[in-house]
């Protein structure tokens, strides 16, 4: 009996131990495994700050920078002052842009005029090419008439003769003798003043900035006036241009009086004995008449203090006849002294140089040939025609 009891006790002990062990095991398996901590991601390399909106692109080929560009923005450094290249020889540097965009005009005409037989159909095509490139109807007729006479006299033509003929006729229409100098020479102690006008989007602010660079490159002390108070971004855009070349920018509150900003800019120019003050204006206001009234006022207010030496009308070469009509409206309000023809790199209608001068009776003084900071050149008719026709 006693041995039975012992056996039962042993069995009970075994059962209790087995059950306890299984219970522990079961609890263990129901517990979620401890979360595995992912390895720490390596810290991201410090990123360079994105350039501000409307900031200009670097043209490394032509711009020297002092001091060498900083890689990061920390710690904050003073804005770099660039040393832009001078204005001379710019059009030669940019002629490839013209040659590329004006192939229809130049090469097209060369090909047509080189044909053995120049019948009426060919002359019609020549006429269409000129009109299609915005040369304008009257100048086209003069050119075609001249070319017909000259070709008759010549008889058979060598490629050199055809090229010479075209060059001569295009140059005659462009007016190689027009005075294209920018009036930016100071009057004793008083700075010269240039006013930049035009409809919105034509490239006024960009041209003002590029011109400031180019004048700084020519050794002039420039002050800029941000008289486009229509939107705050306009003054910021000009400020970016000014900062890059160390040109002071005079600005006013958004929605403020543009004439008063222009006046202050001229006053600042006089105070710091600048050579040139360039005033950028708005391309739009709430009403069209308002804009024209405002421009007239800006000019009159400046004239209380200084002479407005140059009124540059900025015209977008891609807008053709439409742009020309707008130009007329400006010409009636302010006495335009020169045209800055922008975006010539983006249109095949280079003939607008001829028609706009004819319509407004004012020379093209500057041409915009790209969005780069140094893509503005003093207009040189000879280089222009050579670029159209190729060497
Ligand atoms: N391809 C090319 N683009 C140009 C040229 N000139 C200006 N632009 C571009 O035209 C656009 C408009 O230029 P802005 O200078 O802001 O024009 P704006 O006349 O001041 O415009 P608003 O202030 O709105 O009246 C910008 O994207 C410029 O980069 C040029 O010669 N060639
Ligand atoms: Mg602008």
Automatic annotation (TrEMBL):
The Enzyme Commission number assigned here is 3.6.5.4
Matches recorded under SUPFAM superfamilies: Domain of the SRP/SRP receptor G-proteins (SSF47364), P-loop containing nucleoside triphosphate hydrolases (SSF52540)
- Where found? Cell membrane; Cytoplasm
What keywords were assigned to this record? Cell membrane, Cytoplasm, GTP-binding, Hydrolase, Membrane, Nucleotide-binding, Receptor, Transmembrane, Transmembrane helix
- Record GO terms (molecular function): GTP binding; GTPase activity; signal recognition particle binding
Q: Which reaction does it catalyse?
A: GTP + H2O = GDP + phosphate + H(+)
Residue ranges under compositional bias (Pro residues)?
32-49, 66-86
| Superkingdom, taxonomy of origin | Bacteria
The record's section on Gene3D superfamilies has:
P-loop containing nucleotide triphosphate hydrolases, Signal recognition particle SRP54, nucleotide-binding domain
What is the membrane topology here? Peripheral membrane protein
The record's family statement is: Belongs to the GTP-binding SRP family. FtsY subfamily.
Query: Which proteins does it associate with, and in what oligomeric form?
Result: Part of the signal recognition particle protein translocation system, which is composed of SRP and FtsY.
Q: What is this protein called?
A: Signal recognition particle receptor FtsY
Species the sequence originates in = Planobispora siamensis
């Amino acid at each position: 009996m006693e041995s039975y009891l012992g056996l039962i006790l042993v069995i009970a002990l075994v059962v209790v131990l087995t059950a306890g062990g299984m219970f522990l095991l079961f609890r263990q398996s129901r517990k979620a495994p401890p979360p595995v901590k992912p390895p720490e991601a390596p810290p991201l390399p410090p990123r360079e700050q994105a350039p501000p909106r409307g900031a200009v692109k670097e043209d490394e080929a032509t711009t020297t920078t002092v001091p060498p560009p900083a890689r990061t923005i920390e710690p904050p450094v003073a804005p770099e002052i660039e040393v832009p290249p001078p204005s001379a020889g710019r059009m030669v540097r940019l002629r490839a842009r013209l040659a590329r965009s004006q192939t229809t005009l130049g090469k097209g005409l060369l090909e047509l005029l080189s044909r053995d037989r120049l019948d009426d159909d060919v002359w019609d095509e020549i006429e269409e090419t000129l009109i299609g490139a915005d040369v304008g109807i009257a100048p086209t007729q003069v050119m075609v008439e001249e070319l017909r006479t000259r070709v008759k006299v010549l008889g058979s033509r060598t490629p050199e003769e055809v090229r010479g003929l075209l060059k001569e006729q295009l140059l005659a229409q462009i007016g190689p003798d027009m005075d294209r100098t920018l009036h930016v020479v100071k009057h004793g102690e008083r700075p010269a003043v240039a006013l930049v006008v035009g409809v919105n989007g034509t490239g006024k602010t960009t041209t003002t900035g590029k011109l400031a660079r180019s004048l700084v490159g020519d050794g002039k002390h420039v002050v800029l006036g941000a008289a486009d108070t229509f939107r705050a971004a306009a003054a910021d855009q000009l400020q970016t241009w000014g900062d890059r070349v160390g040109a002071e920018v005079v600005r006013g509150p958004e929605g403020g009086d543009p004439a008063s900003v222009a006046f202050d800019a001229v006053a600042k120019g006089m105070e710091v004995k600048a050579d040139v003050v360039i005033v950028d204006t708005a391309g739009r206001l709430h009403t069209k008449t308002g804009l024209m009234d405002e421009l007239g006022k800006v000019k009159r207010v400046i004239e209380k203090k200084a002479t407005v030496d140059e009124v540059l009308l900025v015209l977008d070469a891609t807008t053709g006849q439409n742009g020309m009509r707008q130009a007329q409206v400006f010409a009636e309000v302010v006495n335009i002294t020169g045209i800055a023809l922008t975006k010539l790199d983006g249109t095949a209608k280079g003939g607008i140089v001829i028609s706009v001068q004819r319509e407004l009776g004012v020379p093209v003084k500057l041409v915009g040939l790209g969005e780069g900071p140094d893509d503005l050149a003093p207009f040189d008719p000879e280089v222009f025609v050579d670029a159209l026709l190729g060497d």
